[in-house]
Amino acid sequence: MSRLLRRQGWVAGLFALLVILFIITKLIQPGYGSGDFGSLARAVLPYAFAVAAQTVVVIAGGIDLSVAAMMALTSVTAASMMNGASEEYALFVVPFVLAMGFVLGAVNGILIIVTRVPDIVVTLAMLFVLQGAALLVLDAPGGAVAEWLKGLISGTVPIPGLPDAIDAWLPKALLVLIICLCIIWIPLRRSKLGLSIYAIGSSELAAFRSGVPVARTRIIAYALSGLFAAFGGLALTMSTGIGAPIPGPYLLASVAAVVLGGVALGGGKGGLLGPIVAVFVLRLVRTDLTLLAIDPNVTAIIEGAIMVAVVMFGAFITMRGRQ
Amino acid sequence: MSISAIQPVPFGRRLKRFMADRPLIPLIILLVILVVILQVLRPGIVNERWIANTIKFAIPLAILAGCQTMTMLTGGIDLSVGTVATMSAFIMATQVVNQDPAVAFLLAMMPAVLIGLVNGIGVGVFRVHPLIMTLGTSLIGTGCLQVYQRTVIASGAKIPDFLAWLGTGVTYGFPNALLLFVPLAALIVFTLSRTGFGRLLYAVGDSERATRLSGVQYWQVITALYVISSVLAGVTGLLYIGLIKAPSLSLAEPLVLPSVAAAVIGGTSIFGGRGGYTGTIIGALILTVLTTLLTILQMPEGARRILFGLIVLFVTAAYLRIVEER
Amino acid sequence: MTANPLLDATGVAKNYGAVAALRNASLSVLPGEVHALMGANGAGKSTLVKILTGAIRADAGRILIRGEARDVRSPAAARRAGLLPVYQEPSLIPDLDVLSNLRLTGTPVEPFRAWVRELGIPDLDIRDTARDIPLAVLRVLDLARALAVEPDVLLLDEMTAALPANLAEKVLEVVRRQGDSGRAVIFISHRFVEISALCDRATVLRDGETVGVVDIVPGVEEKIVELMLGARIVKTHVAARGASRNAATGRPRLGVRNLRVGTKLNDVSFDLADGEVAGVVALEGQGQDELFSALAGSIRPSGGTIEVDGQPVKFSHPIDAIRAGLAYVPGDRAEALAMQRSVRENIALPFSAALRNWGPINMRQERARVVSAIERLQIDTRAQGEVQRLSGGNQQKVTIARWIAADARTILCFDPTRGIDVGTKQEIYKLLRELAGHGKSVLFYTSELEEVQRVCDRVIVIFGGRVVDIFPVEETDEPALMRAAYGLPRGAKADVGILADPTANISDSTTPVAAP
């Protein structure tokens, strides 16, 4: 028990912080209800996937600067493919876009292995390339999305037997998030591949000596990151109904949430739960600032400052750990 | 391992070494080739006016690429230059309406110094990766600018005549911007090659451990560097607003990516320790000509970004190979 | 000995660039034996181990396992071939718990638990994260993990280093039994006591070549020392030095009192006088790296004091050490040099370090200083545009020239002659003597014992993080230094030495380490 607490202490603290923030929210806005929670969940969705994408590579000891650009590209691809197409066609679009994310992520990994250029430079170059590709697909926000996809994340999940009062607090968006992450993350975490990803991030030399195929594992980590980013792109399209070629602030947000979520930037540590909770914390802070009737631009500044402070704190901790 | 020049060296290796030693010559050849292609595609386009115009647009890019050159020499990068340039331009244009130009200038440079300081402390003291750090401060800066915009929305904006003259004016066929750029470029080149600070930039980027063992305090060098880089970006913003003449909240953002590409093309290693400003200037010219070329070929903006990204990746990978050959 | 060897490696060679790490190494291990692999620092032991375990590929040579030629391409391939190493640094993934580490390598859990108990750790919780487990226990777990898959050949690199006596005893016992059960163990160790108690035969490497395979019998120790040193054993004369011997006068230039750094350096005290070259003699990893780093201001000591000219000092950055006149020349030249920059910039680097020197450089003055340093050290300046194009010897000269140009009073030289040619070595010896002649002081660690006699006035022997002996260099010859480095008492002869008594208490010579 004590070990569980020690290991999950950080995440538990985050949860506590989240609860406190909810209480504060309720105090600021006594009318804060299930509907607002639903919109929070919807707003969190793309961020959460961006963070998941970043988490996988950071655990593997790398960093992926192309997350936001990858989301933009997959988002516009989905939106433009579904534009004017039938509802059923979307059944094909979704797996196609996910596969595209997976492959492009793998390209990131392969380029890092083959060119031996550091991950930060390769993913920076890929950021440019993916951004450009997004602009080629759609040069201005546009496209459309199948109605059933939109419906997938709006409203709540009716569970028979549950009173409506509880039901209302189970937005579909939250459920989609949990299902998508669990389907990939839980089997991964339990597999040897998952162990290998932690291993190469924790100590590449020890991993190599333990017989882990380091290069292959790294490529797969980036591919998974691409897959999560594609989920994020789809989520963007689903929640806005269109695709936007200019990437949102997801890169910095993903790094900040990873750090806040207890995943060391050096790699090897942490899990997915912490960063996801951290995303909720960061979004809820934004909600509270908005509820306090603070100028949304000031909110952006405060948010940016929080993220920079978190990243600085994380870097400081990493530096301390190294000494 | 051998250092003697008598042994025959394979041509490929000799070429690589030549490229590593004299990066300027192939760059100039590339520039000339691009101009020739342009002339072939659009006969008559290359004339005195075109040249002056190209130089005018290359200068802001070259200064921002100077920021990237200096930060890249230490193994860093400064992605906040676009935001800083935009901020100082926007503040200048709005403050000059009811302030003395000198006061407006000081106000315009303030955010530059501040952002540079935060960048420097984040990178030098807290050891945040420069990319993340400068991206973060640039987001904050953009937020601040938006808030600021609200407060001045009523007073309007104007471009000071002096900046317009400097940005767009041409005297005897020479763009006036050269008046600012030539001394500035000379100063950067001098700083990099003939001052202790310049030496340290190269040395820190080459091997931080070696400089540490020689008694260099990393945070001092890095903090000074990012402040200088930010101030240069601020100056670029003032010049650029004189050229574009339309203050907007994303004025200089499109220059960020090309500024990185210009420094990389100019032979500055993104890993630090190698490169120089003269190469960067030619890199900026090449990119400006390339942009014209792509516009003539009706290449969309997206293709241009892809091309720039691939250039950065390709040049970096090629550079790694050249270094490993030795 | 008619049995076929379990492992038979012949003619193994490996080059790193122009440097040959292994020329012609061979190693043959029979079933049921514990085989010692010995050699002085840089003889190629670790390279051979890396090749056998698939960490690197050999350039030449043949490896037979159970008579079959096997191409060991990766650590995973080595495992499949039945070859399992236990490295000096445990290869458990620090951020995973023990159970996950077992799963990662496909190790069965129950045999592992059995071995762990056998090795003297009764209360292991396999859900503990490796990072939270003390180093000594971690090494034992690494061994247990290897034993659990029942490898044909077990490769142990300095297995008992950093182990407290009780664990070390258990480990040795298990290793011995492993040999009895028909498997084989390759045992790399610097400790003669263990080798005599444990091993059947020893293969000795020197300069990348196998120079002998000996049976371990009482008294073989001298023979092994001889093999490790080779022909050099005859050149035991002390070079005549014109050094002024004013070492005893006045207070010491540098005083080190009870210095401790982490777990590696436990208790080191000595003085360094002006005009003196003091040699540090130590096997690899006895704490000398930490000692030099602490004196250079790179790491902070965890205890003890450093005095410069009688004043206690605290260094928090190398600049503090440099201001106190202590200049550090690291063994790895890449650590000290900006490789892509010119000779001139590298030599002048310390001049630009301080904030007040960031302005324009007085090129003429700088040139004069650099040129005089270059001339003094006779640096080959044909390729001075980039330091990385210089030969290793010239690179080393540049790092020293930097501090001569800066006129440092005390130079800390950490293995400055590693991997450089004989001619340059001679020049460096001469230079260090000259510096001492001018009243400077030098602290000199070298992995080549022969150099100690050539250059030093005094010898400071460090073993297991402690100073075990300090004596004037005249009182010694190379075999004596070798014995001292191996922690054997000075003056002990083989026939009366520890080897004569295999029951000697092992705990006396194991590295003292805080119990977990």
TrEMBL record, chain A:
The record's CDD domains line, in alphabetical order, gives: TM_PBP1_transp_AraH_like
Major location, coarse class?
membrane
Provide the assembly information: The complex is composed of two ATP-binding proteins (LsrA), two transmembrane proteins (LsrC and LsrD) and a solute-binding protein (LsrB).
Job description of the protein? Part of the ABC transporter complex LsrABCD involved in autoinducer 2 (AI-2) import. Probably responsible for the translocation of the substrate across the membrane.
> Which keywords belong to this entry?
Cell inner membrane, Cell membrane, Membrane, Transmembrane, Transmembrane helix, Transport
Membrane topology category: Multi-pass membrane protein
GO CC, sorted alphabetically, is: plasma membrane
- Any one Pfam family here would be BPD_transp_2
Q: Which GO terms describe its molecular function?
A: transmembrane transporter activity
Stretches that traverse the bilayer = 9-28, 48-77, 89-114, 120-138, 169-188, 219-242, 248-265, 300-319
Q: Where in the cell is it found?
A: Cell membrane
State the name under which the record lists this protein: Autoinducer 2 import system permease protein LsrD
From TrEMBL, chain C:
Where is the ABC transporter domain positioned along the sequence?
7-232, 238-489
What is the taxonomic lineage of the source species?
Answer: Bacteria, Pseudomonadati, Pseudomonadota, Alphaproteobacteria, Hyphomicrobiales
For this protein, the record's InterPro entries field holds: AAA+_ATPase, ABC_carbohydrate_import_ATPase, ABC_transporter-like_ATP-bd, ABC_transporter-like_CS, P-loop_NTPase
Concerning SUPFAM superfamilies, the annotation shows: P-loop containing nucleoside triphosphate hydrolases
Q: List the protein's name.
A: ABC transporter related protein
Organism domain of life: Bacteria
According to the UniProt entry, where is the signal peptide? none
Q: Does the keyword Thylakoid apply?
A: no
One Gene Ontology term of the molecular function aspect: ATP binding
Alphabetical keyword list: ATP-binding, Cell membrane, Membrane, Nucleotide-binding, Repeat, Sugar transport, Translocase, Transport
Asked if the Swiss-Prot or TrEMBL record annotates the protein with the keyword DNA damage, the reply is no
Matching Gene3D superfamilies:
P-loop containing nucleotide triphosphate hydrolases (3.40.50.300)
Q: Which family does it belong to?
A: Belongs to the ABC transporter superfamily.
